[in-house]
Amino acid sequence: MGRMNKNENALALEQRRIEPVDITDDKTQIVLDHGSPEKTNRLELPTDDKRAGEGVTIQSVDRALSILEHVAGATRPAKLQEIAEALDLKSPTCYHLLNSLVKRGFVTRNQHPRTYQLGPKINEMSRRERSHFEIRQTAIPHLERLAEDTGHTACMAVFSGTELTITVDVEAASGISIIAYRQHLSRAPHATALGKAILAWLPEPQIARVVADRGLTGFTDLTIVSLGDLVESLRQVRRHGFAVDAGEYSTDVFSLAAAIRNPAGGVIGSIGCLARRNNDDLKSLREVQQRVIATSKAISDACC
What we know:
By secondary structure, this protein is α+β, with helices and mostly antiparallel strands. The protein contains 11 helices and 7 strands.
């Protein structure tokens, strides 16, 4: 058979999904402590209807949050009776809710006099948010260098709950519009390299929750729409240390991404390159692979 011309080559690429093994035979040396991700071939989704009860609130949760807001807004430690009266709660109900908040560290109980004020958990959560901000600030110069070196748009993504979001982006000569790319990103962790680079290293229950909440939307003919295919794709991400998609989320975009890790080895996000597809996606992906992996490692090291 003769060699394919450029149009035939492009058509061939459009008709099959590209995986990390197509880019390189190298295998990652990363080992995590939270359990073997290879067991995800038995991944089971939650059996509850994810849409049942949307918009329904739980009274006890609402009351507990109201107590927390009241304690946070008080100018001095508050007594049980003061909190109960201010929120129109019966004292026993208020007492039990406060006990739960105290047990979780959101509220502290003082003994003499017996009053309540904000607990250490609030400061801990605030420190985490500051840490996330610092990671974003750390990533910016690395992403600027990545965009300059590759000529492609570089970005960082994280999960907010089960929603994939881009937190930092540096647009480059590829012409990828981040505004347009973000449009359906919350439903596309399974269809993007940025999402798969994080999903691959999450514990099974978290992967199951993301899939249950976000689904497996078919954005193009190449999108993964079955749990079995997703499990296999994530296995390849773990094996080779990076994720890839070419036409899975957007027919004219390819991306390659790698995970960012905290000092304990846990995955906190991903960074990657986005670019226009061309007549040789494999060559283009191979050209950015090592740069993306090196950048993810540099950001991870700087976060320590």
